């Protein structure tokens, strides 16, 4: 599933095509994805000017001058295609701009979603209401982690994946950040000291920024809007590397919990 860096990369790829442009046409090739599309989607977007693009957690945001924000989630296989040379069977939503550019939301598995939310209400919109701070924002730091981890017996990995603790982190980047910080995924949050929490906060930021710079990680169907693949997978320290040597020489281990794989180095991470 695309995680924060993949969504951030997607939003940045859409900005040169959409920002400041008027939406000339909206074509919904089916009435739903994971849930029904807004019934008035075309009416509210056609003729609107895109005033900004952003991201919240793993959702992309497209603001218009009509006070609406289109909120999209890529699900497991969604991606936007820019100026596609041909239409594909899974191009479920197509947007054309006044400049003659085309964007097609392609989602073979249809686990993604499209919503229209009044821009003034986005911050408190359903899925966003209980989210923690953005890991690349000013509100995320060691002090925040300390307040969330204090006296907690839950494992560090589970706490970082809890969207109420920090928004947008997913399995890949949590595994990578914990390795960079030298913290075992199973270590109880309440047993992590202040210095290591400071290192963990910095590691989360560093891993995410490096992934965004590399265009994200390529997993299954994910690709950037320009069609290029993300290359951060070539920088993975532990994720997907079971049985391979860590930089310390120890073999990387893997276990599966709740359908998720955890990768870690038993020597580097304590």
UniProtKB/TrEMBL annotation:
One of its GO terms (biological process) is base-excision repair. Its EC number is 3.2.2.23, 4.2.99.18. Signal peptide: none annotated. The active site is at residues 2-3, 58, 260. DNA binds at residues 90, 109, 152. It comes from Sphingomonas yantingensis. This is Formamidopyrimidine-DNA glycosylase. It comes from the Bacteria. Binds 1 zinc ion per subunit. Keywords: DNA damage, DNA repair, DNA-binding, Glycosidase, Hydrolase, Lyase, Metal-binding, Multifunctional enzyme, Zinc, Zinc-finger. It catalyses: 2'-deoxyribonucleotide-(2'-deoxyribose 5'-phosphate)-2'-deoxyribonucleotide-DNA = a 3'-end 2'-deoxyribonucleotide-(2,3-dehydro-2,3-deoxyribose 5'-phosphate)-DNA + a 5'-end 5'-phospho-2'-deoxyribonucleoside-DNA + H(+); Hydrolysis of DNA containing ring-opened 7-methylguanine residues, releasing 2,6-diamino-4-hydroxy-5-(N-methyl)formamidopyrimidine. Involved in base excision repair of DNA damaged by oxidation or by mutagenic agents. Acts as DNA glycosylase that recognizes and removes damaged bases. Has a preference for oxidized purines, such as 7,8-dihydro-8-oxoguanine (8-oxoG). Has AP (apurinic/apyrimidinic) lyase activity and introduces nicks in the DNA strand. Cleaves the DNA backbone by beta-delta elimination to generate a single-strand break at the site of the removed base with both 3'- and 5'-phosphates.
């Amino acid at each position: 599933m695309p995680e924060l860096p993949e969504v951030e990369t997607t939003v940045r790829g859409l900005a040169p095509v959409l920002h400041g442009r008027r939406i000339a046409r909206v074509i919904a090739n089916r009435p739903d994805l994971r849930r029904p599309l807004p019934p008035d989607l075309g009416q509210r977007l056609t003729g609107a000017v895109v005033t900004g693009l952003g991201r919240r957690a793993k959702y992309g945001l497209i603001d218009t001058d009509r006070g609406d924000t289109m909120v999209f989630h890529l699900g497991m296989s969604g991606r936007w295609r820019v100026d596609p040379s041909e239409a594909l069977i899974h191009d479920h939503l197509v947007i054309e701009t006044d400049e003659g550019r085309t964007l097609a939301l392609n989602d073979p598995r249809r686990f993604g979603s499209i919503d229209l939310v009044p821009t003034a209400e986005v911050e408190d919109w359903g899925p966003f209401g209980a989210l923690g701070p953005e890991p690349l924002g000013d509100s995320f730091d060691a002090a925040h982690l300390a307040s969330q981890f204090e006296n907690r017996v839950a494992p560090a990995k589970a706490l970082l994946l809890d969207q109420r603790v920090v928004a947008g982190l997913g399995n890949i980047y949590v595994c990578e950040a914990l390795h960079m910080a030298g913290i075992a995924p199973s270590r109880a949050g309440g047993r992590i000291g202040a210095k290591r929490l400071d290192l963990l906060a910095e590691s989360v930021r560093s891993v995410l920024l490096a992934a965004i710079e590399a265009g994200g990680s390529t997993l299954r169907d994910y690709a950037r809007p320009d069609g290029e693949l993300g290359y951060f997978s070539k920088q993975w320290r532990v994720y997907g590397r079971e049985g391979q040597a860590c930089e310390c020489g120890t073999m990387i281990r893997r276990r599966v919990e709740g359908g998720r794989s955890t990768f870690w180095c038993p020597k580097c991470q304590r």
